[in-house]
């Protein structure tokens, strides 16, 4: 009975520790590997775990579309004088 309780506690602690990584995986984050590394190496500190969690919950930036409108050059007269 005690072994089952210890196993459940261990699973809960491990699941809580890697919660930011699981969230990032489920949300299909572009920077999943970076979140996992941050969570694995700095998750033991509360600050590292919170940063990984916020990063996992943050919305990915959508690529921006830039539209460039170019004006056609104006025609000049033969003598080079502009109108």
Summing up helix and strand content along with how strands pair, one would put the structural category as mainly alpha
Arithmetic mean pLDDT: 89
Fraction of residues in H or I helices: 55-70%
* Total DSSP E strands: 0
- Contiguous runs where pLDDT drops below 50 for at least 5 residues: none
Characterize the overall form: rod-shaped
Quick structural summary:
The chain has helices spanning 2-17, 19-26, 32-42, 46-57. It has 83 residues and is mostly helical.
Key terms for this structure?
83 residues; mainly alpha; 57% helix
Q: Could you explain the architecture of this structure?
A:
This protein is an all-alpha fold. It has helices spanning 2-17, 19-26, 32-42, 46-57. The protein has a domain at 2-57. 57% of the residues lie in helices and 0% in strands. α3 runs antiparallel to α4 (46-57). It is rod-shaped and about 100 Å long.
């Amino acid at each position: 009975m005690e072994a089952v309780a210890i196993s459940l506690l261990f699973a809960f602690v491990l699941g809580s520790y890697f919660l930011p990584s699981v969230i990032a995986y489920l949300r299909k984050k572009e920077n999943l590997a970076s979140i996992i590394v941050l969570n694995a190496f700095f998750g033991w500190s509360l600050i590292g775990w919170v940063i990984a969690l916020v990063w996992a919950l943050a919305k990915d930036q959508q690529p921006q579309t830039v539209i460039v409108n170019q004006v056609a050059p104006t025609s000049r007269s033969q003598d080079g004088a502009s109108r």
